[in-house]
Write a structure and sequence with these properties.
With 443 residues, the chain is an alpha/beta fold. It is 39% helix and 20% strand. The protein has 13 helices and 13 strands. The strands form two sheets. It has an eleven-stranded mixed β-sheet with strand order 3-4-1-2-6-5-9-10-11-12-13, sandwiched between helices. Strand 1 and strand 2 form a beta hairpin. It is elongated and about 85 Å long.
């Protein structure tokens, strides 16, 4: 809840009390009416207009209606209208407070490093792979968002939902909600600047490819992208088309999540196919890095292709792990990898696996132990705590879909691992009361 939300709610409640619960003269009512109008103007001018407070915007109308009631001579009708007006205003104020608290505007206020962050977007088409999902035939196309250290702050900050309402609509649908209920998210700013000038480095920046989970999106890992870029990395977030909530294609159309990809029947078999598609997306991006380093005008010549890491969550975690089995990388971080449908094996690359307590409860550790017997487990954490989805509403915590905020701990673990193995920095000992180092099995 912003300061302007609080001002609007407080002045609306004061107006309600002074106008409706105490006897005021006309000029006094007019004074409070003007105060409420000023509060609404401030909210329009300096905050985001959204449906949660629409009722409060209408408070002047209720004040005017109260004044017009004095013209009614029949006491019984006046009393009924007065009670109706009082109940409507009371319920409206309570609703606005509840809606503002339960569906807040998220703050992207995580701990950034010393560099400002730029971001750019692009699409890549794999001419050697046909699309097996979605309604249309053609080549496989994916969308990338790249974060990088920036020379000077740009003029235009990128929005969190940089691809617009279509992503928001798909997000709302995934939570069984109407799209308008998330409209307030359209104005949420990231910490990145669109196409800002990259800070030139003689040795270039290590590269980290980032892969999201099923029915998720690169936008839910914005925090990892920005934190790593602000500490001297180029991070490439992949939207896995039809596995992501919504992907904007190069022709401007939107490829929405294909919900038939993982049917209840053959769930694990189809899951193995999906993980393989994700893995081949990562492979395709990896094979394009040299070309991007030569042709992309924003990051041209600034990728250190001798130091490449992988960061993946859930389905993207499993895909990252499988790709690391095939190719030589310098560092791999897996968050709640979904290895059940596949057969992972140990890898030689430096590996960090971080799991939520929920992943243990869902009996995922046996499959993970085939790749590594050692993991970090975060107490009370839920699977989607590795995404920004837990910022959408405190309700998620109350219904056990989100745990305590451990984002800083996650970022410390991930950054320390990449700093150690991609930059050769000294390994930092990270301790936290919610963090457990566990041996979960043997290879």
């Amino acid at each position: 809840m912003s300061i302007f939300d609080l001002i609007l709610i407080a002045l609306t409640m004061i107006t309600f009390y002074e106008v409706f619960l105490t006897k005021k003269r006309f000029h006094q009512i007019l004074f409070f009416l003007m105060i409420d109008v000023v509060a609404i103007f401030l909210h329009f001018a300096f905050d985001t207009t959204r449906w949660q407070v629409f009722f409060l915007y209408g408070m002047p109308i209720y004040v005017i209606a109260h004044g017009l009631m004095e013209l009614i001579s029949i006491k019984r009708i006046k009393k009924i209208l007065y009670v109706f007006l009082m109940m409507s205003i009371s319920l409206g104020i309570l609703f606005s407070i509840a809606a503002t608290v339960l569906l807040p505007i998220p703050k992207m206020d995580y701990h950034l490093g010393p560099y400002k962050v730029g971001t750019t977007l692009m699409n890549l088409e794999d001419l050697n792979r046909s699309e097996i999902y979605g309604p249309q035939e053609g080549n496989r196309e994916i969308r990338l968002q790249i974060w990088y250290p920036m020379k000077n702050p740009g003029r235009e900050k990128a929005l969190w939902l940089v691809d617009g309402k279509e992503v928001l609509s798909a997000m709302a649908k995934s939570y069984h909600m109407k799209g308008f209920m998330f409209n307030h998210l359209l104005e949420v700013e990231s910490n990145s600047y669109i196409n800002g000038q990259i800070l030139q480095s003689d040795q270039g920046y290590p590269v980290i490819m980032m892969s999201h989970g099923w029915s998720s999106s690169r936008i839910f890992h914005l925090n990892y992208g920005e934190v790593l870029a602000s500490n001297g990395y180029i991070v490439i977030g992949i939207d896995h088309t039809y596995g992501a909530l919504a992907t904007r294609l190069k022709d401007g159309s939107i490829a929405k999540l294909d919900e038939d990809i993982l049917p209840e029947e053959d769930f694990l078999d189809e899951g193995a196919i999906l993980i393989d598609v994700y893995k081949n997306d990562i492979k395709f991006v990896k094979n394009q890095l040299e070309n991007l380093n030569f042709t992309n005008s924003v990051i041209k010549g600034q990728m250190d292709l001798k130091h490449i890491g992988l960061l993946g969550h859930s389905t993207g975690g499993a895909a990252s792990g499988l790709y690391a089995m095939e190719d030589e990388l310098q560092s791999v971080v897996l968050l709640d990898p979904w290895f059940k449908p596949v057969n992972p094996k140990s890898i030689t690359e430096p590996l960090l696996i971080i799991c939520s307590q929920e992943w243990e409860e869902l009996d995922q550790f046996e499959a993970i132990s085939k790749m590594s017997p050692f993991i970090y487990e975060i107490d009370e954490a839920r699977h989607q705590d590795f995404t920004l989805a837990n910022k959408l509403s405190p309700l998620l915590r109350w219904v056990n879909k989100a745990g305590p905020d451990t984002s800083l701990l996650q970022q410390q673990l991930i950054l320390n691992h990449f700093n150690t193995f991609l930059k050769g920095m000294e390994d930092q000992l990270i301790t936290d009361q919610n963090l457990n180092f566990k041996e979960i099995g043997s290879r």
